[in-house]
Amino acid sequence: MRPISRVMIAIAALALLVLLFVPIWRIDLTAPQYPEGLYMQIWADHFSGDVEKINGLNHYIGMAHIKDDMFAEFTYLPKVIMALSALGLFAALWRRRIFLVGGLVALSLFSLWALWRMWDWGYKYGHELDPRAAIKVEDMAYQPPLIGHKQLLNFDAWSTPDTGGWVLFAVIALLAGVYFLEVRDLRAKLKAKRALASAKP
Amino acid sequence: MNRSLLYTGTSVALAAGAFLMLNGLPGCKPNTTKSVVTGDAASKVYVKPGTHDEFYNFVSGGFSGQLAVYGLPSGRLFREIPVFSVDPESGYGYSEETKGMLMTSYGFIPWDDSHHPELSQTSGVPDGKWCFINGNNTPRIALVDLGTFRTKSIIEIPNSAGNHSSPFTTGNSEYVVAGTRFSVPMGDDASRDVSIKTYKENFKGNVSFIHPDPETGKMSIAFQIATPGVNFDLSHAGKGPSEGWFFFSCYNTEQAYSLLEVNASQRDKDFIMAVNWKLAEQLAKEGKGKRVPGKHYSNWWNEETHSAETTVYEDVLQLDPKDHPGLLYFMPCPKSPHGCDVDPTGKYIVGSGKLAALIPVFSFEKIQKAIAANDVEGDFAGIPVLKYESVLHGEVKKPGLGPLHTEFDANGNAYTSFFVSSEIVKWNVEKLEVVDRVPTYYSIGHLMVPGGDSKQPWGKYVVAYNKITKDRYLPTGPELTQSAQLYSIEGDKMELLLDFPTTGEPHYAQAIPADLVKPREVKFFKIEENHHPFVAKGEKETKVERRGKEVHVWMTTIRSHFAPDNIEGVKLGDEVYFHVTNLEQDWDVPHGFAIKGAANAELLVMPGETQTLKWIPTRVGVWPMYCTDFCSALHQEMQGYVRVSPANSNVPLEAYTVSVDAEM
C-alpha cells in the first residue's frame, strides 16, 4: 500500500469517531402554523431538538411517543462506530489491503444497515398508529421520508444528513478513493508481473 | 266671503311654493375640515402581511388604566397590557396571584387612569428594557417588562394626589419621578383634617424620586422633595449639559382650591420648577432628609413563583428645600404650562403654556448663570424665583393657540401640539422660527416622535394623539372611538399618512425601533423554573386536597385535556382553589380555564405558568369547566366536571381522569 493510502485510511478511521459527538441525521418540519419550523436531530445515542413538541402534535394522529429508550440501537451504535474506527486504524497500521477491503465493506454495510433501520423505524412509526387516535385519515400513513422531502398532512417534512451523516459519506468517499487507487496499483503490479512472465521465454 | 277665501287660498299656495323653493336651495356650508392626503401615503403605512412594523408604539390607555401596544407605521393594535385595571380576559387582578399587584394602602384598587408611558433609558436613549406608566387617580407608577409585556412592578406614591407629572426618567433610569397634581395636607390625621379653605397654609406639593432596581425591576422611593402648594403637570429630566437636573411644569400658582378654570388662570405666568436631583440624591445619601408618614405599597411580580410579592412601607424620606438652598428654583413660564420638554442637546427647556400665545424656550446655560449671580425676582413660598428674561433663550412668537406638548427630531426641530388651534407646529429650536404647520383632526393633546424626548430621536414620524374624533370614523353612538394620526416628518413639509383608532384615551405615548425590543422576547416560561407553591410539573403531580373548608386542586393543562378533569366530593360552603399549571413548552400555546358560575373571571395561563382561580359553588350539582383559548383541533373536547354535594354529604374527595382503556 502507498503511504498516502495509509494516511488517508487513518484519517478516515479517526474521522469516524466524530460521529460520536455530532448529530448524524436531522428531520425538519414546517407547517403554516409553525413558520419557525420544528426539527429533530438523531445522534449516535440520543435524539435532540423539538422532540416533545413533535410528540405533542403527533399524538392527535396516534403516532408513538418518541423516546430515547425506544431504540435499542442507541445502546450499541457508539460501540459499532468505535469498532469500525478501530478496524480502519488496523488497516492503516497493518498495510494489508484485505483490511482496507474489509473496512470498506463493513462501513458500507453499516451505512446500509443504518439506513434500513431508519426506514424500518420510520415505517413502523408512520404506520403503527394508535387505534384510539383522535384524527384518523383514511389510507394515510405518516412515514417520514428517509431522505428528501415529503408532505405529511399539514406538515412539510425534510429528512437530511446532519454533520455526522456528511462525515460518514466523506469517510466512505475517502475510503472508496483509496480503494480505487490501491486497486489500480494492484492491477499495474499484476500486469507488470504478467508482462514479466510472458516476456520470459 | 268668496273673495276672502280666494285671497286666503292664494296666499297659502304662494307661501307653500316659496317654502318649497327655499327648501330646494342648498345652504352654503363652509367645507374646512376635509384633510388632504397627498401622494402615496398608503404605501408608506402599508406593512405587507407577514412582515413587521418598524416601531413599537406604547400608548397610554387613559381611563382604561392600561397600556396599549401598536405598530408604526401601520397603526395596528397588538396588545392591551393590563396595568392598573383588572382584566377579566387574562385573569389579571382576579387570579389569586395577580391580586397583589393592585394592592395599595387603600386596599385592592381595581382601576386607575394611566397617562404617560416612558421607556427606560441607557445613556439618555430608550433601551427597550422597560416601559413605565403612571396611575393618576390612586397615585402609582408601574413598570412593564418588555420581555414579557407584563406589569412587573407597581409602587404607590404616598403624600400625592393625582400622580400626573410622572413617570419621566433620568438618563440611565436611576430614577423615575412622580409630581403631585393636587397639593394636599400631609402628615398625621390631625394635620390632614383641615378646612379646604386653608389651602395656602396647609396644602403642600411634593415630587418623588423612585428608584427601580436595575436587575429585578423592584421599585422603592429614594426620596421626596416637599414643595409649595401648587399643581404639578408634566416633567422631564435634563440631559447632556443639564444632566443632574429635573424640570417640572406647575400651574395654579394662584393656589386656588375652587373653580380652578377661572381662579387658577389669573396670573400671566406660572412656573417651571428646576430640581437639582444630583444634590437631592447626595443629601438623601448623607441622611439629611427626615422620614415622614407615608404608608405605601410596592408590589412586584415574581416570575419564578408566578405570584405578586408586596412590601409595605410606613414612611418615606423627605427633603425640605427650606433646609437645603440650591435644591429648587422656580422659573416664570407663561401661562399654566403643560409640557415641560428638554431638547436632545439638553441645552434648552421648552415650556408649553396651554393658555399662552407663545412658546418660551429656556436656556440651561442662562439658568446656571442666573443661579450663580442670584439673579432672582423674588421668592414663592420661600423658593427663589429666577428672572424670566435672565433664563430665557427666546420665545416662539404667535405659533398657534393652546400649546400643550413638544417633542424633537434629530435635526434641531421641535414639534409642538396645539389643542385649541388643533395643529402641529414645527419650529427651529435655535432660531425660534416656525417652519411648518399641519392640522390635526381634532384637538390634539400630546404628540410623539419616536425617541423624541431622548438624546437620540429616531424621527421619521410624528404621531398626534387626539382628544376629539367627531366624524372621522364610522359613528358608534354617543361614545366614539379615540384616535391617533401619523404624519411623516422626513421631508420639509409634514405629511398626514394615516388615522388609526385607539383604545381608552391616548394621552402620552412612546415609540422605539422594534429591533431593540424583539430580541428580549420571552416565548414561554420554563416549567423547571416554576417555583409556584401549588405547581404540578406533570400529570403525576396532580391531586386534590381538603384543608378544612378549602379544596385545593393541583391541575394541569396540555393539548387538549385537563388533569384531573373529574372532581367529586366538593361540598356547599367550600372554597375551591384551582391551581392550573400549563405544561406546554412552546410559544403561543396558552390554555384558558373557566368554570360555570365563577364570580371573578377566567384564567389565561401561559406555557410553564401556574395561576389560581378561586371558585365558590352556590348550588348542588355537576358543574362544567372548560378551556377558553382555542388550543388545538381538540380544543372543544378540553373540558371537565366538578360534582358539588350538600354540605353534610359523605362523598369522598377525589379527582380523576379516565382514559378509554379503563372503560373498554
Report on the structure:
- The complex is a heterodimer of chains A (201) and B (664).
- Chain A is α+β, with helices and mostly antiparallel strands.
- Chain A has one domain (3-199).
- Chain A has five helices and five strands; from the N terminus they run αβββαααββα.
- Chain A has helices at 3-16, 51-58, 73-94, 97-127, 163-199, and strands spanning 25-31, 34-42, 47-49, 148-152, 155-161.
- Chain A has a five-stranded antiparallel beta sheet with strand order 3-2-1-5-4.
- Chain A is elongated.
- The two termini of chain A are 31 Å apart.
- The model of chain A has no long low-confidence stretch (mean pLDDT 89).
- By secondary structure, chain B is mainly β.
- Chain B folds into two domains: 60-189 and 196-520, Methylamine Dehydrogenase, Chain H (7 Propeller); 534-663, Sandwich (Immunoglobulin-like), CATH 2.60.40.
- Chain B contains nine helices and 45 strands.
- In chain B, the strands form ten sheets. In chain B, strands 6-7-8-9-17-18-13-12-11-10 form a ten-stranded mixed beta sheet. A six-stranded mixed beta sheet of chain B has the order 41-40-43-44-38-45, with no helix packed on it. In chain B, strands 35, 36, 37, 39 and 42 form a five-stranded mixed beta sheet that branches.
- Chain B is globular and about 85 Å long.
